[in-house]
Amino acid sequence: MIRAVWAAAVCLTLLGIQADRAFSQNPLIGLKGGFNVSWVNGGDAESFWGLDQSRTGFAFGAFVTYKFSPNFSLQPEGFYTQLGGKGGDETTGISLRLHYVEAPILAKFTLPNRSYLTPHLVVGPSIYARVGCNVDRRSNGTTESGGCEDWLAETPIGRVPLDTKLMGLGFVVGLGFDAPLWGRFISVDVRYGSGLSSIDDSNLGTDIKNHYFQIMLGYGWVWDI
Q1: What φ, ψ does residue 61 adopt, rounded to 5°?
Q2: pLDDT category of residue 161 using cuts at 50, 70 and 90
Q3: Within the chain, how many helices (H) and strands (E) appear?
Q4: pLDDT digits (tens, 9 = 90+) for 62-103
Q5: Which residues, 6 or more positions from 14, have their beta carbon under 8 angstroms from its beta carbon?
Q6: Terminal-residue alpha carbon distance, the chain
Q7: Which distant-in-sequence residues (6+ apart) come within 8 Å of 21 by Cβ?
Q8: 60 falls in which pLDDT band (50, 70, 90)?
Q9: To 5 degrees, how large is the angle CA 187–CA 180–CA 219?
Q10: What mean pLDDT do residues 145-169 have?
Q11: Using CA atoms, how far apart are residues 173 and 193, in angstroms rounded to an integer?
């Protein structure tokens, strides 16, 4: 399935390039950064892993926007992002920190308007690759940090480690606006993202999925090619 999604993403990107040329405009490129409020849920997120709270992280990366028409664009992105969740309290608990390189392929719908701000809607699939997995464990006021492979959680079937998948699929939907700025432009997006499958890669097969709300600030310009 992951290969099929990658193939579809490449085809959409190539189609976007051709469509952009047909529309007689150069693509837009830019940088984005912001922060996430992320959590994990699913049938086993709390009962097995004790993760019932959100945590914050940051994200940064780049994007390219290919125009099909004045109101529809294709926007591939690539960025580093921090996800995960936590549980317990200030003295005893756990925090799961997942590090990903994420690549959304977004359809961007620009909404007609006559104001300085141009609103838009984005929606599309996302592919992510895990590049790190860490756990902070709090006990009696002290904190220990280590890799996920070192985390032996107390579960109904005993102490087991959390083995997370290297690749995953998800989807993204969001609202935002673009605004001109000294011959370039800025953008603000508020997004919701969700994993489509469990991140657990152990023999337990527990149901635990990534979710996040994200606020991103972008700065872009015309790519003169």
Answers
A1: 175, -150
A2: confident
A3: 1, 11
A4: 999 999 998 999 999 999 999 999 998 877 888 899 999 999
A5: none
A6: 34
A7: none
A8: very high
A9: 40
A10: 78
A11: 7
* Cα 39 from Cα 145, distance rounded (Å): 19
* Rounded Cα gap, residues 220 and 30, in angstroms: 4
- The pLDDT of residue 158 is 66
Tokens of 2: 């992951």
Tokens of 136: 């902070």
- Residues for the chain: how many in total? 225
Q: Let me know: does 40 contact 209? Beta carbons within 8 Å.
A: yes
Amino acid, res. 87: G
User: Residue 125 corresponds to which tokens in the numbers above?
Assistant: 């699939």
Q: Cα separations (Å) of 198 from 84, 165, 202, 218? A: 13, 8, 10, 30
Side chain identity at residue 201, one-letter code: D
Tokens of 17: 């390039």
Convert the pLDDT of each residue in 165-196 to its tens digit.
999 999 999 999 999 999 899 999 999 999 99
pTM of the model: 0.84
Q: In the numeric block, which tokens belong to residue 43?
A: 């049938």
Q: Would you call 6 helix, strand, or coil by DSSP? A: helix
Query: Could you write out the DSSP letters of every residue in 20-59?
Result: HHHTT-PPEEEEEEEEEEEEEESTTTTTTT---B-EEEEE
pLDDT at residue number 20:
44
